[in-house]
Amino acid sequence: MPILQYGPRLERFALRPPEYDKKINILIGSVRSGKTWALHAKILALCCYPVAGRRFIIGVSKASVKTNVLQDLAEIVGSANYKYNSQTGELNLCGTVWNVMGAHDDGAEKTLRGATIGCAVVDELVLIPENFFKMLLTRLSPPGSRLYASTNADGPHHFIKTEFLDNTELQDILYSMTVTMRDNPNLEPQYIADQEKLFTGVFYDRMIRGLWKMASGAVYAGCWDDANYYDDRTRPVGLYGQGGYTDHTVSIDYGTTNAFVALDWIDTGKIAYCDNELYWDSVKENRQKTDGELADDLVQFIKDSNCAQQPKIIIDPSAASFKAECLKRGLWVVGCDNDVYAYGIRRVASALSNKLIKFRRSCVLVTPVQLQGYVWDKKKADNGSEQVVKKRDHGPDAVRYFVNDTFANEWRLTA
């Protein structure tokens, strides 16, 4: 692993002995600002910090902790000082035992009941359920116990902002610092520019500027223009060829009483082209189709595709019966990442803004209109909740399933 430097602000935090830190320590800021790298130094210092109780490293899941935190730690200390059991979550780091756990839903807080915790490190704090985080704080009972967390900013009504960061009564026990990519001396200017291209609107404010901003208005405002369309004149030469240079995918938002939409994607590895759309609205048509009828429609839709390669079919998780119908017909079916708010909408916004997904003007008629009309729920926002209006969202959902699958590795979003 190359030797990385700290900027002066993070260096003071990272190298300060834990006994001089406050009980709760939160780093907020942009992507790639060095937050997690600073926590690595804290974790190593905590290995020899004399405090009673167990030690925890916590994230949305054990897999996310491994990706975001543990892989770098393993390289830093070497195999002789690192042993991790992914099944039990037990990590032996430099002779000190840590417990790695995920907190992806409200039920996770039950796993903390009865535990006495001396040290806790939390990755992606704003994604951790509120009752879990508050239970965690109650378990930090030994004298000298410490909690460290890193996070991107979220909406201004998030409980971390309102109940902790803005709470002046906690100033004796809570330390926080906001950092950006400009605080990370290891980043080249071009890399920073590439990262800034990933985000637009509220996501730019949160992920680049580190600001707690509320989402409002159109979800994809500023992401969409005429360059998100293509036609027979502007599509790349060879897009429909069979040279093996493209991937073929169909993403589906399933509905029987609600609308059913299937999108035909041809992916060049840089730009993904939505070449056709199958849309059945049972309310508008005044007739509900069975799973068998919809599966037959899908088979014909695939036969009519301009890409001869058999596609991967991405279906939303609620569609177990329809998935079974597709499997009967020999189709290659996979599940999808149904994430909406943590990554999904942000990934779609980045892909649209950077013109990495495009729609065939003459064939994909409904989905682009729905994407441009997809809005945040103002009534929910007034009550401090950030949700989209669940109307005419079937096309946007099918797009999100595709983007969550195809652009899961976010390096593609700067292509």
Detailed description of the structure:
By secondary structure, the chain is of the alpha/beta class. The protein folds into two domains: 180 residues, P-loop containing nucleotide triphosphate hydrolases (Rossmann fold), CATH 3.40.50.300; 189 residues, Nucleotidyltransferase, domain 5 (2-Layer Sandwich). The protein is 31% helix and 20% strand. It contains 14 helices and 15 strands. The strands form two sheets. Strands 3-4-5-2-6-7-1-8 form an eight-stranded mixed beta sheet, with helices on both faces. A seven-stranded mixed beta sheet has the order 9-15-12-11-10-13-14, sandwiched between helices. β4 and β5 form a beta hairpin. It is elongated. The model has no long low-confidence stretch (mean pLDDT 90).
Give a brief rundown of this model.
This protein is of the alpha/beta class and 415 residues long. It contains 14 helices and 15 strands.
Rg calc? 24 Å
Q: List the domain count as a whole number.
A: 2
Sequence of secondary-structure elements: HEHEHEEEEHEHEHHEEEEHHEHEHEHHH
CATH topology heading of the largest domain: Nucleotidyltransferase, domain 5
